[in-house]
Amino acid sequence: MAAGLAIFLYGMFLLEDSVRIMSGKAFRQMIRLYTDGRLRSIGSGALITTILQSSSAVSLMVLAFVGAGVMTMENGIGVMMGANIGTTFTSWIVAVFGFKIKIESFAFPLMACAGFIFIIVSSSSKLFQLGRLLIGFGFLFLGLDFMKTSVEAYAQHIDLTVLAEYGAWVYLLFGIIMTALMQSSSASIAVILTGISSGLINFEIATAMVIGANIGTTVTVLLGAIGGIPAKKRVSTSHLIFNLITGIIAFIALGPLSHFVGLFIDTSANAVMGLALFHTLFNFVGVIVFFPFIGYMSRFLLRFFPEHKAILTVYLNNTPTEVPDAATSSLRKETLHLFEECQLYTLKTFGIDDKLVFDHNLPFQNNLGRRSTPTDFYENAKLLHGEIIEFYAKLLNAQLEKEEAKALERMIYASRNIMNSMKNIKGLRHDMEEFDSSDNKHLNLQYRLFRRRLIGLYHSINSFFDTMGDHQEQYRILLRTVIHIEQQDAQFLSTVMELAAAKDIDEREISSLLMANRYSASPVGSRSLP
């Protein structure tokens, strides 16, 4: 049973991943472009989930789009409601093909075709992903066959109907727990369909378990929203509310819904098909019930999870632009704050302990916490830079002297240079990781030298700011720093040429080292000094 489930889950993973790689961009564009309006968003969610065969994947995509502000809250709710309908397609695949064909006549030929594709084509081609899709289908049905065989053996010794005296809620709870643990409603539905096909459970038990599986699938989206922005929490909560209330409605109306299914399919003779229809039916009912209340739910969640805009500025927030002198001073200090945060970002990117440069925590560290990543610091720096530019634009409306205007231009120029340097360092991150983990000892050495040079450079720059007011001392520090950088640069180029001549590094490594030196030699150079 466990082996069959593992093979089934791996088959589902190959299916989802191959489809995502072959046309992931198209699906993301479709979600973004064809979700304008409630009906269109529901339809798009159903269609894309039917193709991707993963409501969780679509739901997590919606979390990302809503979080990025490219999809409205109402349309996000609509897509997730449609995803619930689309995911029922798995039930129909299993019901129609899973138990009505011989496994060797369907799964094995698919896996054989995939094997030939893997041998013939390269892993970077689209055809290779087609092979992964085919073998994914093969594993899916192979796993299903293993589960069916094992459940048939259990069915001879286990009678789950004895739990019926405790009520259908026991089976409902079992479906919730099973799906929450497996993180896949499709896998849970396959297990339930296998159970009903083998006679381990009857139709009434299976319907309660399917409702539970529908509720349990919300765990994946809730986990994806943990620690996220309010927009992500709203979408995940809407998914929970929709699935929970839909499940409650379906559970209360279990008798009428089962009777309605019985009008079209004889559940005693074909319980598997009946369960697939039941799964689709109650999700449709949920969409119909919730459709008029999407707007109300959206407004409720907006109030329940309000936006809390983080205050990233230290000096600009309480400084009025109507007082140019105070505003100019605050803008200068805020630009220096951005400069420090840039240093911190670079230290984190190079894996250097910030205590080697700073003897105190910077504002971003206090705001983001210990678990923050370099990406978090980069995004905050972009927002801070935006606030600096916005403040500068307001300040231009004030009556400024010519010298004041020039001073402001220099600050904004410095601010732009700081952000450009951060972007350059961001691009270096992958190369630095390769230098550190390389088997080439020369690359390891250069990585350590880059880190050492960076620490020395930041100490020199910070000593420059510590001598504010003493222009002669600042000039001396700046001159020493520039001369030292030029000497280190010349030494580095000489070393690289020697290593290249001795064939100790290849062409790609030479290029990577030169690019890294270009940016790390002056990650925030004198041109950026405000």
From TrEMBL:
Cellular localisation: Cell membrane
InterPro entries: Na/Pi_transpt
TM region(s), chain numbering: 6-23, 44-71, 77-99, 106-124, 130-147, 168-193, 205-229, 241-265, 271-294
Gene Ontology molecular function terms on file: sodium:phosphate symporter activity
Keyword Membrane (UniProt): yes
Top-rank taxon: Bacteria
Entry's Gene Ontology cellular component terms: plasma membrane
GO biological process: sodium-dependent phosphate transport
Membrane topology: Multi-pass membrane protein
Protein name as it appears in the record: Phosphate:Na+ symporter
Keywords linked to the UniProt accession: Cell membrane, Membrane, Transmembrane, Transmembrane helix
